[in-house]
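Structure in, sequence out. Go:
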């Protein structure tokens, strides 16, 4: 499990609430709950935090797949 450095964690913030993030396993978790009462969670892939709000994560994933499909046809 890649550990995010304390220096990086000290500057990262939840893009939804603006609260600091803490690492829990393979995710970063906001220290403050959003309007829905849930603390946002962000995946860490290959040591890189994916700090996209949940509503944009699916769109970004779909866009990445579309780009991959276009590149594969070249």
């Amino acid at each position: 499990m890649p550990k995010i450095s304390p220096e990086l964690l000290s500057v990262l913030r939840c893009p939804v609430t603006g609260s600091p993030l803490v690492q829990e396993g393979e995710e970063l978790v906001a220290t403050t709950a959003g309007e829905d009462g849930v603390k946002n969670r962000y995946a860490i892939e290959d040591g890189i935090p994916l700090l996209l709000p949940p509503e944009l994560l699916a769109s970004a994933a779909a866009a990445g797949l579309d780009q991959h499909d276009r590149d594969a046809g070249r």
